[in-house]
Amino acid sequence: MELKNAMQISASGMRAQGERLKIISENLANSDSLGKTPGSDPYRRKVVSFKSELDRAMGANLVKAQKPQQDRSDFELKYDPGHPSANADGYVKMPNVKSVIEMADMREAQRTYEANLNVIDSAKAMLNRTVDLLRQ
């Protein structure tokens, strides 16, 4: 594999993880967003999945983030009859965002991003070393 290809593959991974971090941030920002009318649904957590996409010009598979999908897990119900979003039984649907899970996902995405960055840095160092050797 050429070093240029390795750098482009890692860059595609960084872009994909950047998209994932954006969605995780959106989830965290909306973790308290409730429905606007009684009984309506609150914010629903989004998740990003990835796919491998062939770049024919490079002859390599790149990573691409797919369109974010909604997490279909159930909403938690909280009894709060005085809340404007409460249903007829006094329950408020809470977003299905779990801060601990989002923070763990964020850390994983950050580490994957950093690993891809390290690959690019290593490839650049190898290219620079090759140029230095050719100059001698």
| H-E string | HEEEEEEH
Structure annotation, total helices? 2
Span of the ends, CA to CA? 25 Å
Anisotropy-based shape: elongated
Structural class: alpha+beta
Please outline the major beta sheet: 2 strands, antiparallel
Rg for CA atoms: 22 Å
Number of structurally distinct domains: 1
Compute the number of strand runs: 6
Adjacency order of strands in the biggest sheet: 1-4
Amount of helix: 40-55%
Low-pLDDT runs of 5+ residues are none
On the 0 to 100 scale, the average pLDDT is: 93
What fraction of the residues are assigned to beta strands by DSSP?
15-25%
Q: Can you give a write-up of this model?
A:
The protein has 136 residues and is an alpha+beta fold. The protein has 2 helices and 6 strands, in the order αββββββα. The relative contact order is 0.21. The protein has helices at residues 3-29, 99-135, and strands at residues 46-47, 50-55, 60-65, 69-70, 76-79, 91-94. The chain has one domain. Helix 1 (3-29) runs antiparallel to helix 2 (99-135).
